[in-house]
Amino acid sequence: MAYRYDHILIRYGELSLKGKNRNSFIKQLLANVKLALKAYPGLEFEKQHDRMYIYLHDENPEAVSETLAKVFGISSFSLAVKTEPDMDAIVQACMESLDLSEKKTFKVAARRSDKNFPVISDQINRIVATAILKNSDWKVDVRTPDVKIVVEVHSDAAYIMTDKIPGAGGYPVGVGGKAMVLLSGGIDSPVASYLMMKRGVHIECVHFAAPPYTSQNAQDKVMALAELISPYQGEILVHVVPFTDLQLAIYQNADESYAITLMRRMMMRIATKLAQKRHCQAIATGESIGQVASQTLESMQAINAVTTMPLIRPVVCMDKVEIIDISKKINTYETSILPFEDCCTIFTPKNPVTKPRIEKCERYESRFDWEKMVDWCVDDVKSYWIHPGVSNEEEQDEDLF
Ligand code: ATP
Ligand code: MG
User: Fold this and answer.
1) Model pLDDT for residues 181-199, shown as the tens digit of each residue
2) Atom of ligand 1 minimally distant from the CA of 241
């Protein structure tokens, strides 16, 4: 079928502010756009200094738009019709691309980036509007039109657009380096992952599973969450750590009130080793101050003490309702609230310490050979590539470490 639009015009996001890095940003954005849209082989891409164009060639504009809306680094984009930079061709393309059957109000906003084009913007507006008024029941409304028709005239082509679709904002994923995110099955860590990607940071995820105390369902839920956030990056590598033995050792050797803190310290040690092996520059979590007893500044101090990697907590100062709002927006909320056990919830002590002392953590840890156990965890990691639309991937067989 022939679609009304043959192009998508992409406006760059914040990257336009970054003078020197501009070229590498645009290059990364193009790579990300291509990866996101690889299911549409007919598309053709063209990057320019201030815009990017996608030639649709009979691919479905709506489907392509939906995928494009999740690519970071785009401030907005528009479905467009491309035509010759010639007044007759512009009028004809407008008449063909607009659905004039329904009665609507409109406004024409022309922009002439080619100042040699013989018709000035005001006149372009008038000529196009006159043609529409003559051939339909449409009325002009310059303040709140139902349809705003944008005509852009460049030296080599003219573009006609009607809607500006909001982009995902942020920076193209990859321009900000790479981080290892601790992904649980909860509400916060998928939101933290999204916010990291939005800042242009490529993420890999690590999940700690404690079978048989945690079920396959719990792990599947984490994979489903990774799948839901994967469109923002194209694909996500998820590492699953077998955490049971280490967790049991903590319970055998420490006071119950310290179990969560010690568990977090072990998680952080393992995450640090994985992050180093995978060339990440930071670790991120979904922790938020005061949200639960174990998320106090003292607790964060005890956790940070075991790593020299930057620890980023994107939701650290957000209210739960703010985090929930984002999780609803990115569509992870419904999955996050599914009632499967996490390794933390299973071993939750009745009175977790809210102000853990580092010396005390170290004393408990000195009672067992945790270093060896941490290494086992790292050695026995299973890794999975998660792609949009597929969350039950086969384990990765290529050697990643
Ligand atoms: P979330 O909603 O992200 O699970 P939460 O409010 O339940 O967070 P906690 O369970 O205390 O908080 O976990 C705090 C953070 O620790 C999580 O956001 C996540 O980054 C990390 N974390 C906790 N459990 C796991 C796990 N099993 N695997 C990986 N990371 C985890
Ligand atoms: Mg949790």
Assistant:
1) 999 999 999 999 999 999 9
2) 28
